[in-house]
Write a structure and sequence with these properties.
- The chain contains 3 helices and 7 strands, in the order αβββββββαα.
- It is of the alpha+beta class.
- The chain has a single domain, classed as Peptide Deformylase.
- A 5-stranded antiparallel β-sheet has the order 1-2-3-6-7, with helices on both faces. Strands 4-5 form a two-stranded antiparallel ribbon.
- Strand 6 and strand 7 form a beta hairpin.
- It is globular.
- It starts with 25 loop residues before the first helix and ends with a helix.
Length: 171
């Protein structure tokens, strides 16, 4: 069982811009490992450091779809360096905003650059689908932006009660 609780809507850390990682240290590698454990335990596909209370530019993800096969990815200091002009709308949810799902429009494909778990730079070009959506969602977390900030006013009204209830529970 993970020792890392996932912070929910209303937590201040989720609205703060995360600090860049100066160097990938053993402590940050351990944080990435703990985040992967928490993400798998919660049946998520991505988790950003602010979601576990750490305001650093790190997220983990695994969008593998095959039964029993894992493909964990670690991104330190990620940045999107290119996006397609084509947009795609799809339903999103978030481990920090349980039981809320809504459509979000994002660039269809992206190129992302980051440091891996060992601190080595890498770039993934023209990735699309769930991978691209997850990267964009998690980088938003690192910038203090939540998916509910990007939903339609109708979806916002439909979920307003749940969001207010979550925020009140934090206080």
């Amino acid at each position: 069982m993970s020792d890392r609780p996932i912070f929910v809507y209303g937590s201040q850390v989720l609205r703060k811009r995360a600090e860049p990682v100066a160097a990938v240290t053993p402590e940050l590698q351990r944080l990435a490992d703990e985040m992967l454990e928490a993400m798998y335990e919660a049946n998520g596909v991505g988790l950003a450091a602010p979601q576990v209370g750490e305001s650093v530019r790190l997220f983990v993800m695994d969008v593998s779809q095959e039964d029993g096969k894992k493909d964990p990815r670690v991104f330190f200091n990620p940045e999107i360096v290119d996006t397609s002009d084509k947009k795609e709308t799809a339903e999103e949810g978030c481990l920090s905003i349980p039981d809320v799902w809504a459509d979000v429009t994002r660039p269809r494909s992206i190129t992302v650059r980051a440091l891996d778990r060992d601190g080595k730079p890498f770039e993934i070009q023209n990735v699309d689908g769930l991978f691209a959506r997850c990267v964009q969602h998690e980088i938003d977390h690192l910038d203090g932006v939540l998916f509910v900030d990007k939903i339609s006013s109708t979806d916002r009204m439909l979920n307003e009660g749940r969001l207010k209830k979550m925020a009140r529970a934090i206080r």
